[in-house]
């Protein structure tokens, strides 16, 4: 139950109220608790505007944030090894699946999939030798099917993350049209 109080504290700090989130609040609270107890990250899936990014940033405020819709952010994933020790911290990959494959000297690269595989290998090193490396959790937000990355990547994501699907309404839609 300690993780539920942590969840509530993080949500309160981010000004994300339960009445705004609706039924997704409890759903995500349960998934967060399971993920913390299993020492895993989250895959937060749902439609546009349901609060995936807001929830991820609220729950993991210290995480490195990567916007997969940004070509620059996706290109930086390829050079994560240059980030020093920060590369092992928690990381939010936002809008996974929205990125285009990178073209590097005529070769198409799926930097997001490569980064997921890289973090998985670090996680395996940690599992077999806890003193060798410390790696944070991977938090993914998406509104698309992740099968484009292939069976190997999706299987490893299943080992690294707890999935949760938000079903609420788009929080950005107008309830009334602005006048003007």
User: How far apart are the termini?
Assistant: 49 Å
Count up the helices.
7
Structural class: alpha/beta
Q: So, CATH architecture? A: 3-Layer(aba) Sandwich
CATH superfamily: P-loop containing nucleotide triphosphate hydrolases
CATH C-level class is Alpha Beta
Instruction: Calculate the mean pLDDT score and round it.
Output: 81
Q: Looking at the structure, what is the overall shape?
A: globular
What would the CATH topology be? Rossmann fold
Main sheet specs: 5 strands, parallel
What low-confidence regions span 5 or more consecutive residues with pLDDT below 50? 81-86
Q: Tell me the fraction of residues in β-strands, as a range.
A: 15-25%
- Written as H for each helix and E for each strand, in order along the chain, the element string is HHHEHEHEEEHEHE
Query: Over all CA atoms, what is the radius of gyration?
Result: 17 Å
Number of E-state strands:
7
Helix content: 40-55%
Q: Which strand order spans the largest sheet, edge to edge or round the barrel?
A: 2-3-6-1-7
Number of domains: 1
Tell me the layout of helices and strands:
Elements: H1 2-13, H2 18-21, H3 23-38, E1 41-46, H4 52-59, E2 64-67, H5 71-77, E3 91-94, E4 102-104, E5 107-109, H6 111-128, E6 138-142, H7 151-160, E7 161-166
Parallel strand pairs: 1-6, 1-7, 2-3, 3-6
Antiparallel strand pairs: 4-5
Helix pairs in contact: 1-3, 6-7
Describe this structure in words.
- By secondary structure, this protein is α/β, with parallel strands linked by helices.
- It has one domain: 3-Layer(aba) Sandwich (Rossmann fold).
- Helix content is about 40%, strand content about 15%.
- It has seven helices and seven strands, in the order H-H-H-E-H-E-H-E-E-E-H-E-H-E.
- A five-stranded parallel sheet has the order 2-3-6-1-7, sandwiched between helices. It has a two-stranded antiparallel ribbon with strand order 4-5.
């Amino acid at each position: 139950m300690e993780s539920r109080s942590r969840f509530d504290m993080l949500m309160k700090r981010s000004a994300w109220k339960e009445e705004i989130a609706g039924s997704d609040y409890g759903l995500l609270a349960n998934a967060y608790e399971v993920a913390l107890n299993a020492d895993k990250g989250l895959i937060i899936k749902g439609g546009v505007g349901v609060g995936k990014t807001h929830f991820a940033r609220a729950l993991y405020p210290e995480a490195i944030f990567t916007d997969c819709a940004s070509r620059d952010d996706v290109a930086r994933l390829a050079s994560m090894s240059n980030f020093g020790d920060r590369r092992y911290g928690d990381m939010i990959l936002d809008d996974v699946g929205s990125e285009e494959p990178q073209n590097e000297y005529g070769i198409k690269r799926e930097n997001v999939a490569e980064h997921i595989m890289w973090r998985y290998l670090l996680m395996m090193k940690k599992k077999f030798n806890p003193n060798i490396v410390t790696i944070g959790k991977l938090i993914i937000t998406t509104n698309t099917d992740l099968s484009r990355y292939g069976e190997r990547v999706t299987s490893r994501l299943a080992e690294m993350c707890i999935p949760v699907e938000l079903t609420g309404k788009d929080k950005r839609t107008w309830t009334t049209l602005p006048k003007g």
